[in-house]
Amino acid sequence: MRRTVREIGWAVRGACRESDPELFFPVAPSPEQEERAKAVCAGCPVLADCRAYAVRVGEPEGIWGGLTVRERRGLRFPPGWRRAAG
Length: 86
Known about the structure:
It is built from four helices and no strands. The protein has helices at residues 21-24, 31-42, 47-57, 69-76. It is globular. The model has no long low-confidence stretch (mean pLDDT 87).
């Protein structure tokens, strides 16, 4: 069962709580928007918890823990993770 953000105790202490959700979940992401969202994350007291959660559950959208979807995917599936069966 996937937990919602409401069920995650650390989320209520996130720096993003005071920001517009559109900053972290934009309709049309841009490098500038990503940098603004990451700047909010940079000073967040629960950055490590947020990042760990997003990587663990494979969050498919948005900036979580200061990382984009592509950056989180890189942590979950680092280069060389898929090797041919020998």
